[in-house]
Amino acid sequence: MAEVLLTHSNHVYSDRKQVEKMQPYPPLQTMIAAAVLRDSGIDTACFDPALEPTAGAATQAFEAALDRHRPRLVVVCEDNFNFLSKMCLTRNREMAFQMAGAAQRRGTPVAAHGSDASDRVKEYTAAGFSSILLGEVESTLLELARGNALDTVRGLAYRKSGSVHYNPPRPVRTDLDELPLPAWDLIAIEQYRRAWLSAHGYFSLNMASSRGCPFRCNWCAKPIYGQNYHCRSAWAVAAEMLQLKTAYRPDRIWFADDIFALSPKWTRDFARAVETLEARIPFKMQSRCDLMTRETVAALRQAGCAEVWMGAESGSQRILDAMDKGMRVEQIHTARENLRRHGIRACLFLQFGYPGESWPEIEATIRMVRETEPDDIGVSVSYPLPGTKFYWSVATQIATASNWSDSADLAMLFRGAYPSEFYRALTEALHLEVRGGLGLSAAWEQVHALKESCASLEAVAS
Ligand code: SF4
């Protein structure tokens, strides 16, 4: 039995790319929310569908959890630290809606929190959710779980007399050290350990040191934290690392922050705290190329950083400027060199298909990849998410589908310079180039053939 049942809709085996990568992480945000409720004396359980063998099995297991716990409130609380939840994938939405249906059939009110629910309040309430928790989740959830009158809960949207009522927004918290550590004990950690060990021979867990990002890349959706950025104290983060090291013995850590180590001073303090507490676990993280200065990279190395993923996006300055990336192409090269000097793997996120990009800009990106020789790349096509400047710039071209079904989709959702098949072929060729493997020449031939066929189609059309 539990008063509140928290869950989320990320199911690894429903997502081709997640199955291929097999790097599953426990739902950090869901576990932090659970810890907040529990610390306030509310009996809380978590249902984690991530590693259920099939979507059907996940639904069945969720129904069993409902019957076992008989909660008075169910919350589908997505993991905001998992980039997949930011992609608003339709498979996840379907699972969330099924969960709402299952709770509704038992007469249990069900609420939702996450990027997709924030973007689609009306669809979620029509699917059976009685309320949506907008913005940062913990305080809103706590008031809802305590049974406060709905019209007094800031940050809540809820169904009322057949329409949706929006309460005033709730400001984000500025002191993240007030939050408890995630409720790791409510998740089957050993399942995750087994998945990692059998796929990779090591085990990785996730942490977060901050929330939000102060930069303004114009395609980046920020439905939860807006333009806010707040960071935990360096010593609190190092202490959590030590706690994980002692309790669960992960071989690696993934810092799920949008931007880890934003401040050089924070990074130096963190390195010192990790050393003093003997908390060191090799970690990987995300940042921006322009933040990977010599000084910051040296401190990161001292703290145990092994791999940095950076949003390089494009080798064309014109495209970076169009994206409001606030970064120079030269900084991609400098970041790569700084990381190489300290023996840290440098990995780049690339984005193709942004409006204004044609073959010369794509060539500039290919050239940048060849010159910087990243240790790995992640490739995507520009993905218009509601609430972004980029979304509005292409809104009139968006076809019926406005979300990918899963994270391997790579479909162009607006009219780009080339069709989706071209970008999929380009992705494959670049992956082969960076990761190695057979068929590189054939992959590039395919890219050029698709490029030429698009050019001849255009010539016919004009
Ligand atoms: S730096 Fe990253 S998280 Fe921040 S706005 Fe740009 S893409 Fe988004």
Percentage of helical residues?
Answer: 40-55%
**What's the oligomerization state?**
single chain
Measure the end-to-end span: 67 Å
- Principal-axis shape equals globular
> In CATH's first tier, which class of the largest domain applies?
Alpha Beta
Task: Give the rounded overall mean pLDDT.
Answer: 94
Number of strands: 15
The overall number of domains is 2
CATH architecture of the largest domain: Alpha-Beta Barrel
CATH topology of the largest domain: TIM Barrel
Ligands present: iron/sulfur cluster
Task: Outline the low-pLDDT stretches.
Answer: none
Describe the model:
There is one protein chain. The protein is of the alpha/beta class and 462 residues long. It folds into two domains: 4-166, 3-Layer(aba) Sandwich (Rossmann fold), CATH 3.40.50; 202-417, TIM Barrel. It is built from 18 helices and 15 strands. Strands 2-1-3-4-5-6-7 form a seven-stranded mixed sheet, sandwiched between helices. Strands 8-11-12-13-14-15 form a six-stranded parallel sheet. Strands 9-10 form a two-stranded antiparallel ribbon. A hairpin with a 2-residue loop joins strand 6 and strand 7. Helix 10 (234-248) runs parallel beside helix 11 (264-277) and helix 11 (264-277) packs parallel to helix 12 (294-303). The longest helix is centred in the C-terminal third of the chain and has 22 residues, at 440-461. The chain is globular, with a radius of gyration of 22 Å. The model has no long low-confidence stretch (mean pLDDT 94). It binds iron/sulfur cluster. Iron/sulfur cluster binds next to loops. Iron/sulfur cluster is lined by residues 213, 215-217, 220, 258-259, 288, 311.
